[in-house]
Specification:
Integrating conjugative element protein (TIGR03757 family), 5 helices, Integr_conj_element_PFL4709, alpha+beta, about 140 residues, about 50% helix, signal
C-alpha cells in the first residue's frame, strides 16, 4: 500500500483550515486502491493508499531468503541490525497504517474514494469524476 503524501505545508494548511471553522475546511479525501487498480486524475494533495503494499514489501524482503528457516531467520536478524532497517521499518509502519485506515472506514472494494471519512464512491478509477459524483449526490442530499 504505497502511500503518496501531500506536501507538508498543504497538510499544515488543511489542519489550520479545519481549526478555523467549517466554512474554510476543505474535505478530507483518501483514495484506496491496489497496484493492479490504476487510479487517475488524483489531486496533488490527496493520499493514495495501495492496500496490497504491505504484502508487496513482504515479498520484496522474502525474495532473497534461503529456504532453510534457521538460516533465513539469522539473515533477517543481520538485516535488522543495519542502519537501513529503520527505513524499512518506517515503510512497514506507513503501509500498515493505510491498511488499518481502510479497515476503520469499512472500505469494501477498490478503487474507493472516501470523503471526510463518511462518504464513499466505489469503482470509479477517475478520482476527479468520483469527486464530481460525490458533489452531485451530496447536493441532492442537501436539496431533495
Amino acid at each position: 500500500m504505497e502511500r503518496h503524501h501531500p506536501r507538508p505545508w498543504l497538510a499544515a494548511f488543511g489542519l489550520s483550515a479545519s481549526l478555523a471553522g467549517p466554512a474554510l475546511a476543505e474535505p478530507t479525501i483518501e483514495v484506496f486502491t491496489t497496484a493492479g487498480e490504476l487510479v487517475i486524475n488524483v489531486p496533488s494533495d490527496v493520499a493514495v493508499i495501495e492496500l496490497d503494499a504491505p504484502a508487496r514489501l513482504d515479498a520484496e524482503l522474502s525474495r532473497e531468503l534461503p529456504a532453510d528457516p534457521d538460516v533465513a531467520s539469522d539473515l533477517m536478524r543481520e538485516r535488522m541490525a543495519t542502519a537501513e532497517w529503520q527505513e524499512t521499518a518506517d515503510r512497514y509502519a506507513d503501509r500498515y497504517l493505510g491498511l488499518v485506515r481502510a479497515w476503520q472506514l469499512g472500505v469494501e472494494k477498490v478503487p474507493a474514494v472516501v470523503i471526510d471519512g463518511r462518504y464513499v464512491i466505489y469503482g470509479q478509477p477517475d478520482v476527479a469524476q468520483a469527486l464530481n459524483e460525490a458533489d452531485r449526490l451530496l447536493g441532492q442530499e442537501r436539496h431533495p
